[in-house]
Structures are given as C-alpha cells and as structure tokens.
C-alpha cells in the first residue's frame, strides 16, 4: 500500500500534471493528500455532471451509468447509459448504452472484467431522483457545476468523489 500511495503522490509531479497546474495558474509544487478507502461493491456506478458538460446548461444534469464499478465508464470499456435529468431529479431523457462488460471487485482484492448479458437501462427513475439529490447536496457543500463519481449499492447512492467541472 505504501508503494501505491507513493505513486499517487508522485503523479502530481509529472510533466503533464505540472503543465495542467500552470494552465490553471496553480503553484508548481502541489500538495497532495492520498485518501485510502474501502472499495464500494457497486451494483451500478458512473458519473453525474450537475450541468450539461457540453453546453453548460444548468437545467440539464447529465448522468452516465454502467453495471459494476465506474471504472468501466472512466476507462472507456463501455458505452454507458446516458440520462438527462432536471436538478430536481425528473428524468427528461434516457439512452441505452452498450454495456457488455462490467468491472467487478474480487473477494481477495483487485478487480476483474466480466461479460454482461443484461441489456436494460442501469437506472430507474427512483435511482435518477436519488442521484440528483446527491448532486444537489454536493453543490450545496462545494460549488455549483460538480463532476461527481458515484456508486449504487442496493438502492443507496454513495458519493465516491466530487470536484468542480474543469471543462
């Protein structure tokens, strides 16, 4: 674990990270905290943008979702389901993605990829509403226009990470 923490700490000092910091007007010597947390055994996971990340429209929140861990979305392993919701959690639009793989936690640690035969949408209207509540809470605690990584375990939404949208 110590070697992994050191790799994360050093990643903030590579050339690309320092160039990004300079573009944002931040100091070249980053101060990085490394959080070690339990892997959430997600049934469904993904990202939530509390505005449309393309147009910036604040009345169109965008959710992408896949089966299992959100790594499948982040790494581009799947074409996730896409949902457009109002900030109040009303489902405005849903598009079925191609989610033939899932990244799942292994009992002894690590993850594995598994083929998925389920061709349904990952989220129902109740889950979209719950995620909008999570997004609203993040906006109250931090700032508007959040990029949120989340997981559903059972029907409960879990906040994994929240940060301001940078694009």
Name of the CATH architecture of the largest domain: 2-Layer Sandwich
Number of structural domains? 2
Largest beta-sheet details:
6 strands, antiparallel
Q: Name the poorly predicted regions.
A: none
SS summary, helix count:
4
Give the CA-CA distance, first to last residue: 32 Å
What's the CATH first level of the largest domain? Answer: Alpha Beta
Share in helix: 10-25%
**CATH topology of the largest domain, anyone?**
D-amino Acid Aminotransferase, Chain A, domain 1
Strand content: 25-35%
* Number of E strands: 8
CATH level-4 homologous superfamily of the largest domain: ATP-grasp fold, B domain
Give the rounded overall mean pLDDT.
Answer: 92
Structural class: alpha+beta
Which outline best applies? Answer: globular
Q: What sequence of helices (H) and strands (E) makes up the elements?
A: HHEEHEEEEHEE
As a whole number of angstroms, the C-alpha radius of gyration is 17 Å
Strand order within the widest sheet?
4-3-2-1-7-8
